[in-house]
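Appendix B, Record 12. Input sequence as logged:
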Amino acid sequence: MFRNYIRIAWRNLLKRKVFTAINILGLAIGFGSSILIYLFLSYHLSFDQFHNNPDRIYRMVTEEHRDLIDYEASVPPAFSKAFRENYEYAEKVAKVVVQYGSIIDTETNGDIRKFKEDVAFIEEDFFKIFNFPLLDGSNNISLSEPNTAVITEEFAEKMFGSTLVVGKTFVLENDKAIKITGVLQNLPSTTFLKEQIFVSFVNLEDFFEFAASESWGGITSNLQCYSLLKPNQNVESIEDALLALPKEHRPDSKNKHVYKLQPLSDMHFNPLYGGIDPVLLWVFGIIGAFLLAIACINFINISTAQAFYRSKEIGVRKVLGSFKAHLFWQFLSETFVISLFAVMLGILFAALFLPSLNNLFELELSIQSLLTIEFFGFLLLVLASVAFLSGSYPGILMSRIVPVLALKGKLSHSDTGGNTTRKVLVVAQFAISIALIAATLIISRQIEYATNSDLGFDKESIVMVEVPVDLEPIQYEALKDRLQRIPNVENITFCLSSPGGSENNWGTSIKYNNRPENEEFSIQAKIGDEHFIETFDLTLVAGRNFFKSDSITEVVVNEKFGEKVGVTSPDELLGKTIEVNGASIKATIVGVVGDFHDVSFAEEIQPAFIAGNPNWYGEIGLKINRVNTKETLEKIEQHWSEAFSGYIFDYRFLDERVADEYEAEQRYLSLSKVFSALAILIGCLGLYGLILFFVGLRTKEIGIRKVLGSNVANILALFTMDFFKLILIAGILATPIAWYLMEQWLQGYAYRTEIHWWIFALAIVSIMVITLITISYQTLKVAVTSPVKSLRTE
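Logged structural output:
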């Protein structure tokens, strides 16, 4: 019986090749999109699931309660020892401190090579908490001795051209010879750990004294602490017990710490602590479902439309003894055959567009990852669901056709599904497309608003170049003197970091004007020399710039600082004193600059001060004339390399750094464009199929209308006006839903664009234009045909 269904289904599909092709292509696009989304979701959902005890592994994090709550994926350096020695909740506790951009020197056969890599200083228990085995498969990793390290096999190949490197050495930061004691298997891409060089924690004090200390006085994002809890621990009870630590070690601090335990499973999905937003995964899944839904709607619309043509076939079958169930399963068989071809074509589409997805999200997904039981289960589920949802409704309608009416040719559209159902489904298609187009426009406007607005500083034509830390002032002056001689260099400043686009931000405590206590808020320290304000073109609104000095005695603050301390005029701040960083810095306010966006538009502008201290400089900012950029950069590199022969020249333009802050939004925008285009493409395929059917059905009517005087424009309007009405209804339905959802998205920005009515009007008009283009070819083809031919169709 089933073979007979399939054979008849195949014949029917070949008989209507155009409609079959439209259905297969629409479903294939939906299946291909779903497969790519499946790969993306599977990748993210599999993060750090390979460890031996993932349910007992936690990261220790901090909530900093001031005027606002800040979330830090870190704890003070002293926390690890206190949690290990004073409590009995954990089997293992380990700290990890990452030093970014470290200089690595290796020597192979007399050839000295330099690398710039992130290095992780690891306490020994780290590799007992996590399951990162050595190349030989064992877990016997030992970093208890100083000047020892383990590296990944990938980096071993990169450094030495071989994985047989145990016993070899490399030089860290032109200073320490480090012996390799083990080679790790390459780290999975689905893990939080991205570094490839792991050095004994004993060496940390040589490179990062604060992180190696037992201080409770601050937090650095470079440090993270992990623990493997004993079985059956109550996390809430542990967090309650940890409330005593800040009271004991930070009793007078206005920055109230609350230490929390973050599960390993939450690390990749918690945006408060640097993870991705899980809402993104939900959005991906829903969009995949929408694309399949649009394809199913196409199938249902075209199938119910064709039922009018197939009514005599069904009437004959019923007269010859077919039951409703037979007809239902016959039509479902046709749907299954179409879906099967669509799945195969969808897999091909997924393979073709997978590299684009990898490039967009910087992933390494492969089509080979589809060769799993889970994927085949997913594919069978989707195939069965789509086949059943697409085929069941048309199958039910066809099985209900009255054979007498069918054989006499007296069936109406209502007998074969009617226009109402098709109109509802077409409205749903249009609504999804309008919502996606509107979302794309709003995301685009927000990114344009953030990147083109006045940030309060100049980001154009400024090159940021890293310099080694802890240089002597005379070295800065010598390098500055050499760089100033380059013709196209207009301004130079040495600084800790640029005003925006930098990850090297430093927030610290502040006491204003000899008040008895620290302020509730923290202040951002922007450390730079006396040319900082001029180079970045900050606006001085009151007072003057600070004078050059070997220590910080004068500072310039921003207007936001005055707002925070309750001062109404910038001039009132002049001459007042501040104490920052636990009173280690005491200085007088000599100037006030306008507010500038130190971080993305998602966050409020923070109070900040600017001051000079050569001990903290880590970058050079160079304002250049872009007349001959390449030559200028080459000369900068030449002078820099002569000054720092043991280091690697590294630079970036400031506008590129600022743009990186909106990398996630750019990806959302790219995806919105792709999904909108796919939704429109699938919808257009369905519209083309419907108009092909309706034009064929109304060929004689068109001939009569032309005989009675209708022109081409009248005929075109005859078909388009009905669709335009449906688009307007879809727009009315889609607008409030899309408006609400995008309003919720924009709530994540402290500085945001507004949603205007014309965005939705433009989306509706766009769909109208696309619809007009889609249906024009077939309509015009029939409209310009001689009415004699039209009237002879029967």
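The two ends are 36 Å apart (CA to CA).
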